[in-house]
From TrEMBL:
Annotated protein name in UniProt: Iron complex outermembrane recepter protein
Short name of any one Pfam family annotated for the protein: TonB_dep_Rec_b-barrel
Organism field: Pseudoalteromonas denitrificans DSM 6059
GO biological process, one term: siderophore transmembrane transport
SUPFAM superfamilies recorded: Porins
Main location: membrane
Amino acid sequence: MILFPAYIFLASSIIEPQDLKLIERIQVNANRNLLHSQTLSSGRTDLVFSDEKLSLNRSISDWLVQIPGLSLNGQGGLMQSYSLRGLSRSRIRTEVDGIPIITDRRAGNSISFIPPELFSSVSVQKGPSSTIFGSEAMGGVIALSTITPESLNLSINQQTNGDQTSLAMSYGSEKIKTGLVYRNSENSLAANNKELNTQFKQTAGLIKYQDSLNKYDFILSFLASNTQDIGKSSELFPDKRITVYPEEFHSLSQFQLSYQKDWLIKFYHHYQNWDSEVKRINSRTNLTAYQANTLGSLFYQSHQFLSGEGRMGVEWVARRGVNISEQELDQNSHLNFSHTLLDGKQDNIGFFIDDHWQVDQVNLMAAIRYDTISQKNTYQKSTRHGDKLNTSFAATWQISDTLKLHSEYGTGFRFPTLSELYFNGETPRGSTLGNTHLAPETSKGASLDLYYQNDISKLTLSGYVQNLDNYIERYRINSDLRSYRNIEQAKIHGIELSYEFQLNDYLSHQLSYQWQQGENKNNETLSDLNPSQWHFRSTLALDNASFHNHFSYRETYSDFGDGEEQLNSAFIWNLKWQYQLDSHLDLSIYTNNLLDKLYYGSADEDADFQPGRTIGIELKYQF
């Protein structure tokens, strides 16, 4: 651990005076359905709102790295993924308005198919209690909320590096909320002028209808997105390998009905269809076509068992028509082969119940969830079944008006994905072989959080440990072939710090830090861990203007896992200036990587540099 440079406390930035408060990195009480505002405590949740972001704003990953315990993972570009407390890929449950997003990408979710302009906030639930969400929540839950505009809004955003343009419109009435976004970007440049494969074109739209009748509330929503010519940023570009996703289409639909805080039922569907093209220079080209349906339902109702208060329910998540096919062309565009890699389906049913008790100044929580899963690959005539029972416990002690202590313990699990089991084909990284003998991952985790808050400051200290069995590791067989295997035992532990303080009516700051270590039983470092990193943000408010300032310092990352390389230290400086031209029109000017530093976003061995200095301007008009 290093001492963060003292001079950064001189930094300042701005928000509108009417919004002045401690910088919003809020820890709140979470609940089983993050859309349903019930104040039942179950774990720590960090929130980031859309007006707090100070980044390139390519995808939601750029928002997430503002939170201690999160870092970029995998290769770069629009599809940049993320790691939460050292767990990534299919170990993080990602939801959009409560709809679980399962993409079968080996690198994990990035939610890059939805423009950030359609999101109002992102909520990150950490800690062992997140396992009540099921198999893919062993590492935590990232829940995204789409916008709910109250009027007509227009915005235009232009960036220099990559010539990225964004046009957005949203409209809201009492019952109907809509949004439409168009984005376009060319390849950007690193600080050394190396071209980065970051191009894309994207159009997305959202419509929501919500109403109430006799204490019944219902929501209907539909979101569609089409993205074209998505560049996969890799250090192999452009001399050895060029990877492009020619087209990616997604649609999300749902219906939700609830009665006060007594019960809730929802049905949802996610359709996705995308293609990838991997061109190996002077060798061959591999074309992969993917499509899948995720459909499901969730029902729960409140209860008052054992003098407590809680919920019990059932969740069904199904995969249908999971189809992956591949073609290979030689360097003269002649067909070498064409075949199906995967024709799969999956059903996961989970039964859960939690209960909460208030005893003087202590809140207690206990939860249990039972899951059963069935997986099938028709192409290989292979079927698997499994089931798991998991529990979690939490206690929150309000020691005084300013001091609170929260602790958790829980067991978790993750069934192998269809891709990990059955996919045998080409990816942007090379050839990948599935392993039908993979066992489910299991975990035992504990965390301890200390909160202190007074009138001008807020301090959060967190420590956690996670013991993993049958950890599924992607490993290298040779230079161009990878597969998966179980590691018998592994352990991840770390600490997080967040300190927010307000010096006067105009100036506030936040300092945060993360540190983590993870090893298997042979003392070999795990992959996907979070590098040690400091963040310092400051906010200064003037009459009609605001300044935002963000320093980040990532320490040297020298202990790395399989498929990774050393990361050098990096000091990155971002700035943003906002000015209210009149009661309807706002102007923002910002710069990312002001010092034009050359650095990598993750330790992935195939990762390319992050973009160099980028200057942007944004105009927003509210009718």
